[in-house]
Amino acid sequence: MDFALLLEKSILILILTAITLGIATYLTYGERKVAAFLQDRLGPNRAGIFGILQPIADAGKMFFKEELIPRNAEKWLFILGPGLAMITACITSAVIPWGSHLELFGRTIQLQVADVDIGILYIMGIVSVGVYGIMIGGWASNNKYSLYGAIRASSQMISYELGMGLALIAVIMMSGSLSLREIVQQQSGWGGMQWNIIYQPLGFIIFFTCALAECNRAPFDLPECETELIGGYHTEYSSMKLGFYLFAEYINMFISSAVMTCVYFGGYNFPGMHLIEGQNLLAVLQIVAIFLKISFFIFTFMWIRWTLPRFRYDQLMHLGWKTMIPLAIVNMLLTGGGLLLFGK
Known about the structure:
Elements: H1 3-38, H2 54-64, H3 75-91, E1 101-104, E2 107-110, H4 119-140, H5 144-175, H6 180-185, H7 189-192, H8 201-214, H9 226-229, H10 239-264, H11 279-305, H12 313-342
C-alpha cells in the first residue's frame, strides 16, 4: 500500500474519531439545553460560561467514580458489553462521505475513510452487531431488570431493522448502487438540490422512525424504561462502562443523522455549490453543509424526546411489524413501478 495513502487515512481516522467523541460529549450538553428550553428553564449554567464545561465535568465524574462489578456477574462478558457497543458505534462512520475531496501537497485527499461498494450493507451489518453489546451486557449483569431491558432492546432493534432495510432498498433501486458516495453524487443535480427526499418522502419517514427505535430514543426508549426496569440493560453498570453505553447512544444518533443526510438530503450537496470556485473552498463548504444538516436531525431527535410520551411495548411492536414493514414494502413496490413506467 502507498505509505502516503496510509498516512492520509490514519490522520482522517484520528480526526474523525476525535470529532465523533467530541460531538457525543457535547450532545449531552445540547440535550440538557434543548430540554431546558422546551421546559422554560436554564439547564446547565455553572460549569464555565453558559455551562459549556458541563460535559467535561460529567466525563471527569465518570472517570473517577468507583467501578463496581456485581459478585455474580459474568466478569469478562460484563466488561465486553459496553466495549462492543462503543466500538460498533464508532466504526460505522468509516463509509460516510463528509465532502468530495481536498487538493493538498499535490495529492487528492478523499474525505471518506473507505469508499466501499457496499457502504449501506456495511452500515446495516455493523448496526446489527451493535445489539450484541447491549444483549451481552444485560445478560452478563445477572440482574432480571437488566436482562429484561436487553431482551427488549434486541427484539426492538431486530424488528425495526427490517423496516429500515426495506426503506433503503427503494433508494438503492433508484440509485443502482450500494455506495454512499455514489448515492450522494447522484443528488448533485438541480444546482445541488436533487435530493432523494423529493422522490422518497414515505421512505424517509419510515427510515427516521426506525432510526429513533434503533437508537433507543424516546418514544422508543423501552429498553431503559426507568419506571419499569430501573435503568434497563445498564442498571448494574457504573463509571466509564456506563459512560460507554451512554456515549454509544449519542454516537449512534450522530451517525443515524449522517446516514439520513447522505441517503435522503443530498449529503454534502448544497444549493449553488456549482458556483463555488476552488476545490478546497468547495470541500470546506461541503463539510459545513453536511454538519448543518446533521445538526438539524440531532435537534429533531432531542425535540421528539422531550415532546412525545413513551409507547407501551405492545404498541411499539405493533408499529414495527404491522405498520412500518408493510409501509416499507408498499413504498418499495411503488418505487419499482415508478422506475418501470418513467425510468431512472
